[in-house]
């Protein structure tokens, strides 16, 4: 039988921490019941139990996207077997598996994912459902690696959707609104090594005038800034080819490891020595064994069409001093376009501007208004899993397939069994 539990948590893919909050601790889930099904039959029992339900991954989102007033279903206990199909170059994973569990299994058998987010701690299904991404001009969002999903609907029936099926492109970045992903099939490739190196002293003028020159020659590039100085703080390069250059467009290579957050412990950061190592140990910024980033923080992120990136960055520099009191650091990354309806990279190559804030919700919200006033008219789309203030009409305007998604939702979940207050706000009616 399904066990209702008062509190649960997730660390390294196992239930070890007792908490009913998200990872950052800024959201206390309002669920009346918590469930941790251990089989698809148990999951079906919860889903068809007559109450609103919501799937929960590894709890790393910063807003109430995963919350519910009904039953919050942890996916951590669902069947998590990992099956590699070498002929198809695909891996099949259960709906609660984290990248931190998946990556070593792939690596041990000679396989890799094309890209990862800054941390491996997150669940694949949760990352995919929110359009999570890494960086790289040639790298799409993590959702674009999905070749198929099994989705349990409100009737408890599992539908399999594969790339090319009519509902596929609408369902992968599904915000948890279309059902519970019980299995994903991901594209894989033969394992590869990368090096990582960090540079300091790059003038802002180079970033604004030569952004393409910074990003086009390396597999993954992250620029860190507090918007305060004439230079950005750090540029992180990750590449499969060659070796780290001594100098990068006026920036010099750091001789010591650097954390992107001031005074944070560099032990938590992946290798920056320039030595080549397996993809899973270089693509994320943070090591699995450590707390990623600061922990006590909020995050926001806006993905702007690459064509207007310069204007967006200039606007943010102007706003820089107004964020000073609440900003820990900002990160600029590039992501290639995909065709998934609610992906923030839908239809256009984008530049993502991420903000790590202090954990001060009111102060953060007050700086988000001017940021969104500047960026949304340029076509910026907020990261679904982070803090934003944009309302339904603004979001609808920035997604050409918004109405199609709303119709898909009405078709697969007409009673809004998977609905919650967050969805009511952004997808009313
Ligand atoms: C320190 C830190 C660093 C981060 N770095 C990045 C980064 O580099 N790039 C980036 O893009 N984002 C980043 N994020 C954001 C993070 O990737 C997203 O919030 C992501 O959704 C987290 O996955 P999760 O499993 O924790 O999802 P949760 O927060 O648990 O859930 C998110 C959504 O997914 C849904 N969901 C979860 N599991 C399922 C399922 N099985 N079926 C259907 N829906 C499901 C939930 O209902 C909810 O709507 C970072 C977050 C943190 C805390």
TrEMBL record:
Keyword Oxidoreductase: yes
InterPro entries: ALO_C, FAD-bd_PCMH, FAD-bd_PCMH-like_sf, FAD-bd_PCMH_sub1, FAD-bd_PCMH_sub2, FAD_lactone_oxidase-like, Oxid_FAD_bind_N, Vanillyl_alc_oxidase_C-sub2
Keyword Endoplasmic reticulum applies: no
Recorded GO CC terms: membrane
Keyword vocabulary terms for this entry: Oxidoreductase
GO molecular function, one term: D-arabinono-1,4-lactone oxidase activity
UniProt superkingdom: Bacteria
SUPFAM superfamilies for the chain: FAD-binding/transporter-associated domain-like (SSF56176)
All residue ranges annotated as the FAD-binding PCMH-type domain in the record: 27-191
PANTHER family: D-ARABINONO-1,4-LACTONE OXIDASE, L-GULONOLACTONE OXIDASE
Name assigned to this protein: FAD-binding protein
């Amino acid at each position: 039988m399904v066990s209702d539990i008062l509190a649960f948590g997730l660390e390294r893919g196992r239930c070890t921490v007792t908490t009913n909050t998200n990872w950052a601790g800024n959201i206390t889930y309002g669920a009346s019941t918590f469930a941790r099904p251990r089989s698809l039959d148990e999951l079906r029992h919860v889903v068809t139990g007559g109450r609103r339900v919501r799937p929960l991954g590894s709890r790393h989102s910063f807003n109430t996207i995963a919350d519910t007033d009904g039953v919050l279903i942890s996916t951590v206990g669902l069947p998590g077997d990992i099956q590699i199909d070498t002929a198809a170059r695909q891996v099949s994973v259960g709906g609660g598996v984290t990248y931190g569990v998946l990556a070593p299994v792939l690596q041990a058998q000679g396989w890799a994912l094309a890209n990862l987010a800054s941390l491996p701690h997150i669940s694949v299904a949760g990352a995919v459902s929110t359009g999570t991404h890494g960086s790289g001009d040639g790298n799409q969002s993590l959702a674009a690696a999905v070749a198929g999903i099994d989705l349990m609907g409100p009737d408890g029936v599992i539908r399999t959707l594969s790339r090319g099926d009519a509902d596929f492109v609408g369902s992968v970045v599904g915000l948890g609104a279309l059902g519970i992903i019980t299995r994903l099939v991901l594209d894989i490739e033969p394992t590869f090594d990368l090096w990582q190196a960090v540079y300091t002293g790059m003038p802002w003028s180079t970033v604004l005038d030569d952004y393409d020159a910074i990003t086009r020659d390396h597999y993954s590039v992250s620029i860190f800034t507090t918007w305060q100085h004439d230079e950005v703080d750090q540029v992180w390069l990750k590449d499969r080819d060659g070796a780290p250059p001594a100098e990068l467009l006026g920036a010099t290579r750091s001789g010591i490891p650097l954390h992107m957050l001031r005074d944070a412990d560099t032990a938590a950061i992946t290798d920056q020595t320039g030595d080549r190592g397996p993809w899973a140990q270089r693509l994320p910024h943070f090591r699995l064994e450590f707390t990623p980033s600061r922990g006590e923080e909020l995050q926001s992120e806006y993905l702007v069409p690459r064509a207007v990136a310069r204007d967006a960055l200039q606007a943010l520099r102007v706003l820089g001093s107004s964020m000073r009191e609440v900003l820990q650091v900002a990160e600029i990354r590039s992501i290639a376009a995909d065709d998934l309806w609610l992906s923030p990279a839908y239809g256009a190559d984008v530049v993502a501007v991420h903000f790590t804030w202090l954990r001060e919700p009111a102060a953060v919200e007050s700086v988000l208004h001017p940021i969104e006033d500047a960026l949304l008219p340029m076509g910026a789309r907020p990261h679904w899993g982070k803090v934003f203030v944009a309302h339904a009409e603004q979001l609808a305007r920035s997604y050409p397939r918004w109405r199609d998604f709303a119709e898909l939702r009405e078709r697969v979940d007409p009673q809004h069994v998977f609905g919650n207050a967050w969805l009511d706000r952004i997808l009313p009616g």
